[in-house]
Write a sequence for this structure.
């Protein structure tokens, strides 16, 4: 069965229109061969129509594959598609109908409208702009923020930076993951001046990736948006828990990986990675020989099985070389332990995992790229309780008893829980707020993290 037979059909028009709109929107593929299809149709010979038919069929399969985020070549029934009473509806229903997807699609359509109307004005370089100032470029700032509904006042010509404009700048900073101070400094000015076409491309890229991301949320899984510094836990597709997280620094990024939580460690030890030992611990130990004792850190031999405890006084700390360390440092559980009260054990080549933290005040920051690669979870005990609730062969009160006892305890889960560490650089909140996050470490992924995420367990 063909889309184009002896002449172009109603199906041809609908599918060609759909592919042309998909190309124009920038979602997924930017080239479904629409120009070539039109040439073949215009020439009109039997061979031309056969070529056009093949190109349309391939375009339909590729479009369905990309917009649904899965391989539809074997799943989609072309015969059913072509025999559909309402072919336009059939094509429209290929797209996801999740509210998150629709909000993102609507945002992209709005940014296309802004692009078509000429985009937005650039804020000229100059001094940092803040409340109380009067400058000509402040009127530009008002007009720029009004386009994206950050500024909700009526006077777009005023050159005064008033409280209303301060609130608008803070709204803009919040939805771009910037420091929220109401001041248009270098970073905020750069974000304001990102062209609308680039913002639309970011929305389109995330819209294209949405089906793949949504698939990770349909079952039971933990999904961490590294760029958004947020975590969600889904059980059977239902959102059970969400929290802020702290992720890797720009020079030590959290890798993009999929893994599983196989066990939960309560009152965990911290096995300090060699890189942290060399870069951060050794200078402190040299300066203060009692540093290890003062911080409940034990020196363990790597040359005995099981590792025996060594006397720090027997090590010439100043002469520790650059080769493999013949010892390791392990911090006991306690209030200073960076692991906090719970660690979610993963198994990946980067030795990155999720854990609690004693420095909970850091979750109040809008920019939370602060760790050595691991993911620190706000309200980690609540997440642990949810995982243990249905996934562990342990008494219901095991969590509280273990915390009261204070001794390290590992609880294995009956079924490992998938964990996905991903990058989402644009999304739309339920209230319609369009969120953008920039990747401060472009290309940060599994490969680029190999050199920076240390091979020893316990990275924080």
């Amino acid at each position: 069965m063909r889309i184009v037979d002896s002449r172009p059909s109603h199906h041809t028009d609908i599918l060609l229109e759909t592919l042309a709109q998909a190309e124009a929107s920038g979602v997924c593929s930017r080239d479904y061969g629409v120009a070539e299809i039109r040439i073949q149709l215009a020439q009109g010979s039997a061979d031309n129509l056969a070529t056009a038919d093949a190109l349309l069929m391939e375009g339909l399969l590729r479009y369905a594959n990309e917009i649904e985020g899965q391989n539809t070549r074997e799943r989609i029934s072309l015969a059913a598609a072509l025999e559909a009473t309402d072919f336009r509806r059939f094509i429209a229903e290929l797209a996801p109908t999740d509210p998150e997807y629709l909000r993102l699609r609507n945002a992209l359509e709005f940014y296309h409208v802004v692009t078509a109307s000429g985009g937005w004005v650039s804020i000229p370089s100059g001094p940092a702009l803040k409340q109380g100032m009067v400058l000509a470029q402040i009127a530009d700032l008002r007009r720029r923020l009004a386009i994206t509904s950050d500024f909700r006042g009526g006077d777009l010509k005023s050159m005064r930076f008033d409280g209303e404009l301060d609130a608008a700048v803070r709204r803009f900073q919040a939805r771009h993951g910037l420091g929220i101070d109401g001041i248009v400094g270098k970073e905020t000015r750069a974000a304001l001046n990102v062209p609308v076409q680039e913002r639309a491309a970011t929305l389109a890229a995330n819209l294209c990736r949405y089906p793949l991301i949504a698939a990770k949320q349909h079952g039971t899984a933990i999904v961490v948006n590294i760029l958004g510094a947020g975590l969600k836990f889904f059980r059977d597709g239902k959102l059970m828990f969400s929290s802020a997280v702290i992720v890797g620094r720009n020079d030590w990024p959290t890798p993009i990986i999929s893994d599983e939580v196989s066990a939960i460690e309560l009152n965990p030890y911290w096995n300090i990675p060699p890189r942290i030992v060399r870069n951060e611990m050794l200078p402190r130990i040299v300066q203060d020989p009692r540093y290890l004792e003062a911080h409940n850190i034990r020196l363990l031999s790597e040359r005995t099985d099981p590792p025996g405890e060594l006397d720090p006084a027997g090590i010439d700390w100043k002469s520790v070389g650059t080769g493999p360390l013949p010892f390791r440092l392990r911090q006991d559980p306690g209030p200073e332990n960076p692991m906090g009260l719970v660690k979610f054990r993963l198994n990946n080549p980067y030795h990155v995992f999720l854990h609690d933290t004693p420095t909970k005040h850091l979750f109040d920051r809008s920019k939370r790229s602060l760790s050595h690669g691991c993911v620190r979870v706000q309200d980690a005990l609540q997440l642990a309780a949810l995982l243990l609730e249905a996934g562990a062969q342990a008494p219901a009160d095991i969590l509280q008893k273990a915390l009261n006892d204070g001794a390290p305890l590992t609880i294995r889960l009956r079924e490992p829980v998938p964990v996905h560490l991903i990058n989402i650089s644009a999304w739309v909140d339920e209230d319609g707020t369009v969120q953008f996050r920039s990747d401060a470490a472009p290309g940060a992924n599994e490969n680029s993290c190999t050199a920076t995420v240390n091979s020893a367990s316990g990275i924080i």
About this structure: Residues 70-74, 441-459 have pLDDT under 50 and may be disordered.
